[in-house]
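Anyone opening a protein record will find just a pair of labelled lines. With that in mind, the following record should read easily:
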Amino acid sequence: MELGTAIVILFYIIIPFTPWILSLVGTLLYQPAQKNTLLEREKASAKSGDSLSTLSQPFAGKEVREFELVMSSVVMGPSWIQIAIGGILSLFGGEITTFTKVVDWARREAKQRLREQVASKGFDDVINMRIETTVMSKTKGSKDKTTGVEILVYGTAIKY
């Protein structure tokens, strides 16, 4: 077999699988690294106590000197590999843990970004925190295909 023929055959075999290989690498290497970075950021924030609260009023006995509406959002979607695994699991029904993990990661990231934003602006707490979720999809013919999820976290930052 000539070298040119071998290269052409290799080209036709590898090129169609390249996106799937990249998706697998992203799922197995990139995502865990990003999740570990998030975990470290969460641990650093936890040392000073969680500043996020769903309480509708500030803590009793403390005078509020300043307040501001703050928000943070994250858009995340599953990789091709995660979509394939989720599709297989959906055949059996029940919780699709692959997608649950992606949404959980997005929610944690949005909340952590809000904590960091509030700390950088010098606020003490966030009250009345709310989380909104939007499913992003594209329509192809008569089928809707979910491509990602947006998590919006917002609340009132207060300074005592």
Observations:
- The CA atoms of residues 122 and 141 lie 49 Å apart.
- Residues 3-159 form a domain with the Translation Initiation Factor IF3 fold (CATH 3.30.110.70).
- Helices lie at 3-46, 80-90, 97-120.
- DSSP finds three helices and three strands in the chain.
